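REVIEWER CHECKLIST
Item 1: Sequence provided? yes
Item 2: Single chain? yes
Item 3: Sequence as submitted:
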Amino acid sequence: MKMKIPICFLIILVLLKCVLSYNLNNDLSKNNNFSLNTYVRKDDAEDDSKNEIVDNIQKMVDDFSDDIGFVKTSMREVLLDTEASLEEVSDHVVQSISKYSLTIEEKLNLFDGLLEEFIENNKGLISNLSKRQQKLKGDKIKKVCDLILKKLKKLENVNKLIKYKIILKYGNKDNKKEMIQTLKNEEGLSDDFKNNLSNYETEQNNDDIKEIELVNFISTNYDKFVVNLEDLNKELLKDLNMALS
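Item 4: Structure as written out by the authors:
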């Protein structure tokens, strides 16, 4: 009888130990699951944030492409107007302007092509950056795009000025007169330019124009214009590489 009591007591202790061990393991399991879920949710949130930044960069590429499209349309329309105003001079003159129109469009097409190719080639690098680094690089790329667009806008105005000078100097009397009246009220033109408009009223009409002189005038202005576009293409690529360095 005396031996049964210690045995019963021992059995009770073993059972209590098993129960306590089970509860402890269960609590630890819950805590570990909670921690794991917390980290998983945190990782998912970081991935979503990174993906959002990458998506924003892609949207920036699309917006840049749209802006380049507007510049192309504007420059094309200006050159078409110039062509139309010189149709009475000669076909050779019109062909000269048409040639530059195609060249300018080709150079403009390179801008969004360069940016799109650059982002595509560096998507892996950008995706592996931290959220902070991604945002920093994205902001730098946007600044590059904004600066290039600003310079393209200036060239857009240069294109218009070339048109004005061609028509004022070589256009027929009616086109010249209409242009002078329009430019007198045009915003963004210097006072010196407007004050000199009256000088063009006495310029020779297209009947007196030497074709070679006009072609040379067109070539001189648009050769420089094309070089400026090529320089901007190089600047875009160089600045994009610096933005990710």
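Item 5: Key structural point noted by reviewer: The two ends are 87 Å apart (CA to CA).
Item 6: Recommendation: ____
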